[in-house]
Specification:
It contains 11 helices and 13 strands. With about 325 residues, the protein is α/β, with parallel strands linked by helices. Bound molecules: oxa(dethia)-CoA. Oxa(dethia)-CoA (UT7) binds near residues 115, 220, 223 and 227.
Length: about 325
């Protein structure tokens, strides 16, 4: 079987225009800018317009990534959309994106691994290229979490935001080469972060609506502990798979869930914060969109040099986790 080196050929990102600041939230729930900033590092987040759905955000990010990769819609063989909130339960958001892009040759499916979704999609998509089955795979992380946030629950509503990021994968052109991906899961923690109603276990009814079971439910403390542990373990595992050590790590693009989680990881790695991508202050936690938006920003603001070893690392509901190592 072929073992073709896979590269990220182009990146794209988009966030909705509307900003929701901590000061706005102070008017909505019993919270304060001071609490949110010190506990999470978040100052504002973006909220999709009423007529904007996950596929709308995904489409903008995808077009930008394809333009930068110089890949046309008809050159795309597969589209994977990582999301926890597709436009509809079915058909997949990937199919909606495929049609609007005019990517007529592409197969398309959604993938759900919560906040680790982009890393999962990157790993899955890259296999098709490595084996020679496909040449160009479009991988997207897109979320409109604001639609399932309970705006009266201060434990969750201050954390989340909307956005989308995309990457075109293809045979490496000698830069941004994927060196390894590493994935993990532990369903024993499934209850810690979930949207209880709307699926086959608890279909949406008047009662589930009245009980708020269609909202995001989260045990923040337990996720926090899991996250600190996992960020370290997944980063080490990804580097090891790539034949590298912590000393080789040049730049970290972590899932943006909480600044304290990221700082704890950086400290453990002995990594200065100038080598860590942070945009949680402006966007909050965008789940599967968090890493591709952060990676795109790291590149477009010139923070990544050719040859840098860049590690993306994520954790999230499921529980799931994963990392990807790229030589820029
Ligand atoms: O992408 C993966 C998904 N999620 C995460 O990664 C989240 C991980 N967890 C976290 O980021 C943190 O646990 C939180 C930010 C969610 C919470 O921070 P914490 O330092 O763990 O606070 P806590 O849950 O222990 O709550 C401390 C206090 C509580 O009050 P009492 O019970 O001590 O009186 C909360 O009710 O802070 C209260 N609180 C708030 N106060 C003001 C919780 N949310 C808020 C709020 N504003 N928004």
């Amino acid at each position: 079987m072929a073992d073709i080196p896979v590269g990220i050929l182009g990146l794209g990102a988009m966030v909705p225009e509307r900003r929701l600041t901590n000061q706005d939230l102070e008017q909505m729930v019993d919270t304060s800018d001071e609490w949110i900033v010190t506990r999470t590092g978040i100052r504002e987040r973006r909220i999709a317009a009423p007529d904007e759905a996950t596929s709308d955000l995904a489409l903008v990010a995808a077009r930008l990534a394809m333009e930068r990769a110089e890949v046309r819609p008809q050159d795309i063989d597969l589209i994977i959309v990582a999301t926890v909130l597709p436009d509809m339960l079915f058909p997949s958001t990937a199919c909606l994106v495929q049609e609007r892009l005019g990517a007529v040759r592409a197969a398309a499916f959604d993938l759900e691994a919560a906040c680790s979704g982009f890393i999962y999609a990157l790993s899955v998509g890259s296999q098709f290229i490595a084996t020679g089955m496909y040449r160009h795979v479009l991988v997207i992380g897109a979320e409109v979490l604001s639609r399932i946030v309970n705006w009266q629950d201060r434990n969750t509503c201050v954390l989340l935001g909307d956005g989308a990021g995309a990457a075109v994968l293809g045979p490496s052109r000698g830069e941004r080469t994927l060196l390894s991906t590493y994935l993990g899961a532990d369903g024993a923690g499934a209850d810690l972060l979930k949207q209880p109603a709307g699926g086959s276990r608890l279909p949406a009814t008047v009662q589930t609506l009245a009980d708020g079971m269609h909202y995001v439910h989260m045990n923040g403390n337990q996720i926090f502990r899991f996250a600190v542990r996992t960020m370290g373990a997944a980063t080490f595992a990804g580097l090891k798979k790539a034949g590298l050590t912590m000393d080789d790590l040049d730049f970290l693009v972590p899932h943006q869930a909480n600044l304290r989680i990221i700082e704890a990881a950086a400290e453990r790695f002995g990594l200065g914060m100038e080598k860590v991508m942070i945009n949680i202050d402006r966007y909050g936690n965008m789940s599967a969109a968090s890493i591709p938006v952060a990676l795109e920003e790291a590149e477009s603001t010139g923070r990544l040099q050719k040859g840098d070893h860049v590690v993306m690392v994520a954790f999230g509901g499921g529980l799931t986790w994963g990392s990807a190592v790229v030589r820029w």
